[in-house]
Amino acid sequence: SGAVVPAFVPSPYDAIRARLGLSAGTGDCGLLDASEAEGPCVAQSDGDDTLAAYELARRSDIAIVFVATSSGEGSDRASLSFDGNADLLVRAVAAAKGRRTVVACVAPGAALTPWAGEVGAVTYAFLPGQEYADGLADVLFGDVNPSAHLPLTLPRAENEVGFTDAMWPGVGDKQRVASYSEGLLVGYRWYNAHNATPAFPFGHGLSYTTFALAGLRASPTRVTVTVTNTGRRPGAAAPQLYLTFPPSAGEPPGQLRGFAQAQLQPGESAEVRFPLRARDMSVWNATTHAWQPVHGSFGVAVGLSSRDAAALRGAFRSP
User: Fold this and answer.
1) 3-state secondary structure at position 203
2) In the structure, how many helices (H) and strands (E) does the chain have?
3) Average pLDDT value over all residues in the chain
């Protein structure tokens, strides 16, 4: 394995201070209440003492809690929770600040967020790199309107999909053998097939503006929708196309077949087109080792996540 030692790594504390225009020796809140400070100030705690973090949050206007977890080549993570006292820390700060709490998460994959309903916002970064702090400050202060969408599902509980030991990590005395009996029900497909609601679905992502979809048109060669920025700020929408095969195909419902991004000013609309290929309406034939077209009625859903209740729905027939 290789390693890189970056020339510098800004801390979130320094990035936030810089965004506020605070120079060295100024803007340290110390033990002041926010109402007593002369101008903006920033205070920090290492989070080890949850009571101290609660008191610091209580004296502040806004609280930002940083939580993280990591993994390596030598072993798997022991759980989907964030490291250390992260859950207790978030809940302590949220008890003091409520919806004026932001939780900034860093993880190599999915993690549990049991406190998400107790805070005002959650940011989620996957291995963000040395400029994470400056990038986060840009988002927190509204200099950049976030437009990213989750590439995976965040579950509500450990092993929410019900994997058995035989499925993972495998069973056996001399050598473990895993049976992939979940078949095609992996990730968001499991949630769609079981009509289950995760903490945050695949494809989910929020913005400082809002979007609406309309005018769904579907055929075997193309699906088209119109997306409109219904908010007050410029932003990027990312409509996603999900197809449901005819029951005879034995495929999971609502499979991703395309996504597109549209940069829109407030009130602006754009037509988003999803071209379809024969491959998009085919299944793999393990006997012939080739893609086999499926014929019949295909369900269509275009939304802003895999579980978007407001998704536009329709159908087309593949001859």
Assistant:
1) coil
2) 5, 14
3) 94
